[in-house]
From TrEMBL:
Domain Sigma-54 factor interaction: start-end pairs: 162-391
Any one of the GO BP annotations: phosphorelay signal transduction system
InterPro entries hit by this protein: AAA+_ATPase (IPR003593), AAA_lid_NorR (IPR058031), CheY-like_superfamily (IPR011006), Homeodomain-like_sf (IPR009057), HTH_Fis (IPR002197), P-loop_NTPase (IPR027417), Sig_transdc_resp-reg_receiver (IPR001789), Sigma_54_int (IPR002078)
Membrane-crossing residue ranges in chain numbering: none
Keywords: ATP-binding, DNA-binding, Nucleotide-binding, Phosphoprotein, Transcription, Transcription regulation
Origin superkingdom: Bacteria
CDD domains attached to this UniProt entry: AAA (cd00009)
PROSITE patterns referenced in this protein's UniProt entry, alphabetically: RESPONSE_REGULATORY, SIGMA54_INTERACT_1, SIGMA54_INTERACT_2, SIGMA54_INTERACT_3, SIGMA54_INTERACT_4
Name of the protein in question: Sigma-54-dependent Fis family transcriptional regulator
Record GO terms (molecular function): ATP binding; sequence-specific DNA binding
Length: 480
């Protein structure tokens, strides 16, 4: 992409001379003063600003100081005579001046300086984007340029969201893919760990904004005061500890997507500030009086019932309708049991690679245990269990005994009452409930001991013959 250079000088002859020097290599905009320059930058993205120091009304340093605040991505260069050098040196840090050129300038030197500035801006922008991507989680954008973008689009394609054939996610992904093409805000609803961030990434990389940054912020992870600074930035001295200017995530994500996770946890006071940014398309860093235009797509997510929160007054209705251009509900894992084993197999391969272990597989009992558990923590809980099983395992096959006790029991407090750490069925006669508990304890012991009946019988205080009789009574599989 050809870089855009803005030339600001009240002397028309000098402006024309600089334009002729640069126009073969750059797209050149011109302005004869600060007001005209502001109008140009409000309409177009500018990569390099070349500004004369001595202009009526506003000096070059003063204008570049303003530009640093409103358009921080642009590289700033000032042109001056020797008599102005002290003023410029004093303003270098405050205005963020990248370089200054002394008059009379030489065309070749001017051209090379602007080329270097454009290259520096491209590198800076790339590093900032890489930083945002790394902060948002591991991704394939370590490879830069078009190859990296193509790799990212492939890695986060909707087809790469792991699911079984005929999964409830099929229709959801098809809808999300259609939505992605249009610049609409999206609200993702669902329990924690259902894959909302993965869906948000897929929407971003299927959208016209895919070449821009994808930035993630968990709104529940930090208090409101810090959240405002993190998202919108702050000026030096805005509060105790603000020793430097800080560019917020909205500004860094310009042209891309901001994913606001757990937006339902924000306070009404912060909701007002966020609504203003979304409505006006501009923000004011903490401690600043100047508005900065931003162009981002917002994808928000929450595990809360926001409609109920709106009715109760906990969440602003106007913000709700601003972020809920389209609402997608991610189903929990227990409502798509067919997806459990495919997801588990993918997680098994991923975690094994992360731990430096050889490829592994689940045995039949392990798969049965995975299918029999309701997964209240969804995919995040599934990943943790697989990591635990791999770490405790001693071979290439993950067996059921490597899972935690709650998985082997097959129940959680959300689905059954608890008594002394064992699951108690919620219905049935006393005898039926006791039988269910006894069968559960037998099965759990056998799974942990990998169906070694001698060890299981010893743990339970039974003889091997007594254990076999109970297995026959309860119809448990005999794997001897």
């Amino acid at each position: 992409m050809t870089a855009t250079v803005l030339l600001v000088d009240d002397e028309v002859r000098s402006l024309d001379a600089m334009r002729r020097t640069l126009e073969e290599d750059f797209e050149v905009l011109t302005a004869t003063g600060a007001d005209e320059a502001r109008e140009q930058m409000a309409r177009r993205e500018v990569h390099v600003i070349l500004c004369d120091q001595r202009m009526p009304g506003t000096t070059g340093v003063e204008f570049l100081r303003e530009a640093r605040e409103r358009w921080p991505d642009a590289v700033r260069i000032v042109i001056s005579g020797y008599t102005d050098s002290e003023d410029i040196i004093a303003g270098i840090n405050e205005a963020g001046i990248w370089q200054y050129i002394l008059k009379p300038w030489v065309p070749d030197h001017l051209l090379q300086t602007v080329k270097s500035a454009a290259e520096a801006r491209t590198l800076q922008h790339g590093l900032a984007r890489l930083d945002m991507e790394l902060r948002s989680g591991p991704g394939p954008l370590r490879a830069r340029g078009q190859a990296g973008l193509a790799q990212a689009r492939s890695a986060f394609d909707f087809e790469r969201i792991v699911r079984a054939e005929g999964s409830p996610l099929d229709a959801l992904c098809a809808m999300a893919e259609r939505i992605a093409r249009h610049d609409l805000s999206v609200l993702l609803l669902g329990e924690s760990g259902t894959g909302k961030e993965l869906m948000a990434r897929a929407i971003h990389y299927a959208s016209p904004r895919s070449a821009g940054p994808f930035v993630v912020e968990n709104c529940a992870a930090i208090p409101d005061t810090l959240l405002e600074s993190e998202l919108f930035g702050h000026k030096r001295g805005a509060f105790t500890g603000a020793v430097d200017d800080h560019i917020g995530l909205f500004q860094r994500a310009h042209g891309g997507t901001v994913f606001l996770d757990e937006i339902g946890e924000t306070s009404p006071a912060f909701q007002v500030k966020l609504l203003r940014v979304l409505q006006e398309g501009e923000l004011r860093p903490v401690g600043s009086t100047r508005a900065i235009p931003v162009d981002v797509r917002v994808i928000a997510a929450t595990h809360r019932d926001l409609e109920a929160d709106v009715r109760s007054g906990r969440f602003r209705e106007d913000l709700y309708y601003r972020i809920a251009g389209v609402t997608l509900a991610m189903p929990p894992l227990r409502e798509r049991p067919g997806d459990i084993v495919p997801i588990a197999q993918q997680l098994l391969a991923d975690v094994a690679a992360e731990l430096g272990l050889p490829p592994a597989r689940f045995d039949d009992d392990a798969r049965a245990v995975l299918m029999g558990y309701p997964w209240p923590g969804n995919i995040r809980e599934l990943r943790n269990e697989i990591a635990r099983a791999l770490a405790l395992g001693d071979g290439s096959t993950v067996q059921a005994g490597a899972f935690s006790r709650k998985l082997l029991q097959g129940h959680t407090g959300a689905h059954a009452e608890q008594m002394n750490g064992h699951a108690l069925p919620a219905t049935g006669t006393l005898a039926e409930r006791l039988d269910a508990i006894e069968a559960m304890v037998l099965r759990e012991a056998l799974l942990r001991h990998r169906w070694n009946k001698t060890q299981a019988a010893k743990e339970l205080g039974l003889s091997r013959v007594g254990l076999r009789a109970k297995l026959q009574r309860f119809g448990l599989e005999d794997k001897s």
